[in-house]
Structure formats: C-alpha cells, structure tokens
Amino acid sequence: MKKKIGKIFPIIDSDQRKKMVEDKILNSTQKNDGVVNIHRYNLNNVGDLFCGPHHYFKELENSHLDILGFRKISKKKRIEWSEKISTNSVIIGGGGLLNIRHFERQMRLFEQLKAKGKKTVLWGVGHNDPKLKQIGNPKKYNVDIDNFGLVGTRDYSMPNEYVPCVSCLHPIFDKEYKETRETGIIITNSSLKDNSILEKFKNYPSTSNTTTLSEMISFIGSSATVVTDSYHAMYWAILLGKKTIAIPATSKFYDFKYKTVISSYENFEEDLHKAQSYSGVLEECREINLKFAEKVFDYLNI
For the whole model, what pTM was predicted? Predict the structure, then answer.
C-alpha cells in the first residue's frame, strides 16, 4: 500500500523519491559543462565535511553537493540535485562511500553514468562495511571501479591507485601544537550518545567528531596518543605524528597505508603501550593528492 501511495505522493515513500531522481538522471542527456563534487556534506561530522576536494582547489570552489540530496522531501531540491549531476562532470568523494548500504544506490547510479558520456572521478573514497568491523578489508568493492573515468581510493591494499583523503591539504596541519596530555579520546556522534561507551572513557580528556576542525585538530595536536573510533581522527592523528589506537566501527579502519593498533572499548588501556607514530606521512599524502589533482583537472579539462 505504501508503494502505491508513494507513486502518487512520493513524500510518503523515501524509496519512491529516490527512484524518481534516479530515473530522471538516467533518462537525461548527460553533459560535462562544469563539475560537482559529491560527498557526505555533513555539518555535524567534521570528517565528512572536510573530505571533499572542493575545499582545497580553486577550480572546485562552490561545487559541493550532498550525496544524500536525492532523498530530499522537497521536490524542487531533488530536481536541482539531479540536474546538477546531469549537467556537470562528477567528482565523488572523499569518505567511506563504498560497501555500505547507506550510499549504495547513489554509487550504483553514478556507476552507470560513464557509459552515457559522463566524466566521473572517484577521489579518496573507501570501503566502509560495518559487517567487517572485527575482520578487516572486503575482497572487492560493491561497485565496479572500472565503470568510472578516473579512480583513486584511500584503501591501500585494494587493486587501484592509492589516494588518501584530500583533507591532508588543509593548512591547519602546518601549525605547531604543544602536547599537554598523554592520552586523548575522540569519539563519533553515535558513541557520544552511548552512556556505556562514555563510561569507558570517563577518566580521560575527550572530544568528538561533531566539533569544529580547529578544535579537533588542536585536541589531536595537544595529545601524545589518540584513541578513537573516528576514521578521520585516526587519519589526522597519524598525519600529525601521533601515536594512535583505533576502535573500528566498520572495515574502513584497516586499510590506511600506515597501520594503527586495533583495539576495543574494553581493552584500549591495555593496548596504549603498543601505539606507534610515523613521520613524513603528511608530506607523502599531500604529494599523492597534488599529483592526482593534476590527472583529475587534465581529465576534466578544467
């Protein structure tokens, strides 16, 4: 009954709203007049927010588009979302957009556009499978990356070009920070709402990925060791040469080039002495992204 009513009143049925947008895009002539950068543009998640290349290149300024836009209640906003995609070349990423149900429909939609003449780029995306949070990497992605024009993913062991998250280009990492604590905890918004997790960390200074970038990086910079269940907190801590402990929520924590100690909410204290730091990672990640950007802009003719 919901499906039948949804065809008449799509506001009632989210799946019907998504299908209408998908059909509109797939039935439209695909152009490459400009460029849009699609990622999870989430003001309440600092990692999601700053993983888009549009923050770091003048060629991509004001090009961002939230990947969840195809399910908007407003018909006008859904049409605007679909028209931006149909009209422009598409950069998808960064973030954990692969191997997760939450973004699967969008990624399968984008996968079909290259064959229709669309220029498509995957930039710094990665797998994000919650079923593998205690196991590790998936054997393959849930889309065929050969169906995209240019591909760079943040997963080091997967069979494609390695491009870590572009947020390494932010100038905030060039600042110097004085360490004032031995161990700092950074948790995600979902963990912030879980009292049992908060209890585990009650004796340690903590923050979450719902704060601002400057506050989060300052917290990382002033900590000798970072314990986190946030991918970007792990990544940024490694960039700043901090010892890191990761508590995985999905597969995404396992395949960064520079490995961190994997632990749990129950055992992280026992693992603190195992944590290690790396040097030169920030410079390496920046070099990789700048070289990939040259390829992207040449491919997109911008």
Answer: 0.94
